[in-house]
Amino acid sequence: MEPGRRGLMPAFPCGKMEEGKARWPDGVFAHLEMLEARAYEAAVKQEETEQREEKLARLKARVQELRRQRDELRAKVDLQQKGLGKAGVVSDAAQPSARAVLEWKIKSVKAMLQVFYLTGISGKLTKQGVCFCISTAYEGTYLDSYYLDLLTKPEVRIHRHSVPTFIPLEQIAKKHLETDIRRFLSVLADHLNAYVGRRHQADQLQEHFSDQIEGTLQRNSLCNLLVFNYNLSSRSKTFPFNARLLYGDLCCSLPTEVSVSCTPEAPASLAETAAAHSALFRRVALHRAFRSFSSAAERADVAP
Amino acid sequence: MDETVAEYIRRTVLKIPRDEIKTMLQKWGFLSEMQLQTVNFHQLKENISQDVVQLCEENSADIKQAAVLDIIYNHIYPNKRMWSVYQMNKTGEEIEFFDFTDFKKKFKRRLRSALKNVTINFREYEDNAIWIRIAWGTPYTKPNQYKTSYVVYHSQTPYVFLSASVLRSNLPLLCQALVVASNYHDIREVELRSHSLNSLKDIVFKRYSQNFQTYCPRPLSERKVAPESADVRIIQENRNEKERIQRVNREVFGDGPQPKLEFAQYKLETMFKSDPKMDVMYKKEPFRCLVKFSSPHLLESLKSLAPVGMADAPLSPLLTCIPHKARNYFKIREKKGFFPESFVSP
């Protein structure tokens, strides 16, 4: 109903039936029809306004989008002009700008920090002390990094760390931390590097030579005792050799005691090989020793 | 095959979700692949369990094999049990050569010397974790396979994870056997408990992400960067404060996922501090009170308190020290001395 209209009487005023008949000579239903038609027109108009508003909103969004693109392109053009400007003016190229010098300095400092990180022991001063990072490696492969957050006041002590629990950190700290921090870091780094070295050897063995080993390697958290049955080639189904490697020195990644034995019924030649392997494992990393077996076996195959 | 064994196997199979039954039986390795092919794993679990028991009957399973199946189930679903952490210590400095066979022998001998009616099973996993399952009996009754304790021990570490059964009277026996078998001197319970075994391991083995300050931080691509608002006319008034909160939060909690704990409990025995004129407590006694925070994932919810604005950053150290101190039960007492501040007891 148009709000502007005043004096619209309700269709059936109570007690005024006669008046109604006088007011709407065509009848109440005709009046109703007219009202209906008006309502319909109003609804159509409203729909039109809504559609117009929608279209307006769409166009506004499009304008926004185009403005944004224009800004982007403007920025690109500016940048290009600046670049051209730099190349265009030859006389300034000889003097390096302050910005370039700063960038070079930052790059060289970053490279220096990277070098420290690669050496294995690096540190950063913190508000309360210093945070050391021991990055371990074995034979050229970088392995895990371990962190130590130290406090320096009132005395040097460890605040937090990410060293595994089976590394005897408390013992090493008790011995060296307060007296000689270099020694402490060096001993700890030795322990950690040796541990990851032993672990790397065992992992490599398990990964690349699993068909020459019976089942899985029996080891422990520190990887300082390995026991396994193995054979020389991947083709045979029996595992005549039993190896037991004991790593007595926790700072060393080679075993201190090796015993390789065969089953008692084995022929004498195997017993000799076992003794040879015993000596080999004490000198050479485990996975490389196994690699030498397979290459020796290949050579034996190739030889007539 | 013993009826009790058959029933036990049937009930264990019923616990396993239907889709996992076949894989778990394959891991168990007691039934051959051919035998497993004869079972229809799409029927009702009741019927699957009956079929499995039938096959076990053919292979004459005994309690040892049934126990192995139970260990496998608990290893895959450890979060159904409540785990507590114990710490052992020793005074010697000898290098430990942990030998698994030696450990098993010593443990069994020690436990059986005190109590003959126990079922003990071991299983070693690749992350150097040793799972021990113990079913307890009494001097006069056979072991009750439904009342089991589980022990998870990583060699050459001083920590043991225990999921004790209802029979707490056997706990001293179990602790003693562990100490003897692993060559330590004594053992005590650490105030750390949770349903998530891996989270407990992460906390005590320091495998969770701690934020250490280094010059070689992880590349930015790993950190989530919030998208900037598209319209430059919108200015974030609190941007500095938001960034400060993010930075402080990251320093405290680190970038990675937090270990999953369900609650932290603080037992307060501090003096009630009030206006002396009000004189609420006429007896100068500590005000005893227990505050417990619980959540499906407590540490993640603490981490998100400051960014959503429910708490000030940095959070109280009493809350943030939980993974660092490796405990979620605290006792807070008054500090005796000139400065009456509260402190956390060890």
Automatic annotation (TrEMBL), chain B:
<dbReference type="GO" id="GO:0007059">
    <property type="term" value="P:chromosome segregation"/>
</dbReference>
<keyword id="KW-0158">Chromosome</keyword>
<dbReference type="InterPro" id="IPR052011">
    <property type="entry name" value="CENP-NAC/CAD_complex"/>
</dbReference>
<dbReference type="Pfam" id="PF05238">
    <property type="entry name" value="CENP-N"/>
</dbReference>
<comment type="similarity">
    <text>Belongs to the CENP-N/CHL4 family.</text>
</comment>
<dbReference type="GO" id="GO:0000775">
    <property type="term" value="C:chromosome, centromeric region"/>
</dbReference>
<dbReference type="GO" id="GO:0034080">
    <property type="term" value="P:CENP-A containing chromatin assembly"/>
</dbReference>
<dbReference type="InterPro" id="IPR007902">
    <property type="entry name" value="Chl4/mis15/CENP-N"/>
</dbReference>
<keyword id="KW-0137">Centromere</keyword>
<keyword id="KW-0539">Nucleus</keyword>
<dbReference type="GO" id="GO:0005654">
    <property type="term" value="C:nucleoplasm"/>
</dbReference>
<protein>
    <submittedName>
        <fullName>Centromere protein N</fullName>
    </submittedName>
</protein>
